[in-house]
Amino acid sequence: MKTTIIEGENLNVSYTGENVLTIKNLQITKGKLVGIVGPNGAGKSTLLKALLKLVPMDGEVNFSGKSLKQFQKKIAYVEQRSEVDLTFPISVTEVVTLGTYPKLGLFHRPKEADLKNVEKALKKVRLENFAQRQISQLSGGQLQRVFLARAIVQEAEIIFLDEPFVGIDVTSEKVIIELLKELAKSGKTIIVVHHDLHKVTDYFDEVIILNKQVIAIGPVEEVFTQENLLHAYGESIGFIRRKEEN
């Protein structure tokens, strides 16, 4: 039986008086790896930020029946690399340790058990040998793996990732997607803004096809169709071959 973890109604985001995203009804299933796809300017990143109230939005959203404020400690957000200040002097271990703060609070130091969890998370993303390295010294893929380790330490129920696979190496992409699938199987809900349509059937359980509104939402095998893609992207989309057709 499916359980809905995120519900939104009558969501609307506008910039300088221009509407950029309108969603009448949004339901995201718990324990699924969900991709958000759509053309440039479709509102994919805006949707994540709106759900997290990082941009102004009209409408109602709840998380397992709770408000964002009530549920926020159980949510992790991995922003795009371009939004991160790489000049800030902070080590890999320190970044991952930030994942303990939602549970501990800002004025409590992590205990030995918390630091052990940081070590375990770094091993999971295969960066234990980079623990003391400054984040400015990391590749794009390594940085994304550090942010994922931070989310793992936080023990978040919902993880939002904004284009985590853009400009990263093959090894990092493999490590990240394997971990995301493992987390989803354990009951976590993972929501990923994604741009490579050819990998959708391999990577995701469910997909949201977006173009300033929801074109389709649901299991990949049901809604990731040529008809829905044409609706979202127009004739320029070409043909996306399903894995089973190869």
What is the assigned CATH homologous superfamily? P-loop containing nucleotide triphosphate hydrolases
* Count of separate DSSP helical elements: 10
Order of helices and strands: EEEHEHEHHHHEHEHEEHH
How many strand elements?
A: 9
Mean pLDDT score: 89
Which architecture per CATH?
3-Layer(aba) Sandwich
Can you describe this structure?
The protein has 246 residues and is an alpha/beta fold. The chain is built from ten helices and nine strands. Helix 5 packs across helix 6 and helix 6 runs parallel beside helix 7. The C terminus is likely disordered. The strands form two sheets. It has a six-stranded mixed β-sheet, sandwiched between helices. A three-stranded antiparallel β-sheet has the order 2-1-4, with helices on one face. It has a single domain, classed as 3-Layer(aba) Sandwich (Rossmann fold). Belongs to the ABC transporter superfamily. This is ABC transporter ATP-binding protein. GO terms for molecular function: ATP binding; ATP hydrolysis activity.
Topology:
Blueprint: E1 4-15, E2 18-29, E3 33-37, H1 44-51, E4 58-63, H2 68-71, E5 75-78, H3 92-97, H4 101-104, H5 112-124, H6 140-154, E6 158-162, H7 170-185, E7 189-193, H8 200-203, E8 206-210, E9 214-219, H9 220-223, H10 226-233
Parallel strand pairs: 3-7, 3-8, 5-6, 6-7
Antiparallel strand pairs: 1-2, 1-4, 8-9
Helix pairs in contact: 5-6, 6-7
GO molecular function: ATP binding; ATP hydrolysis activity
Organism: Enterococcus phoeniculicola ATCC BAA-412
Keywords: ATP-binding, Nucleotide-binding, Transport
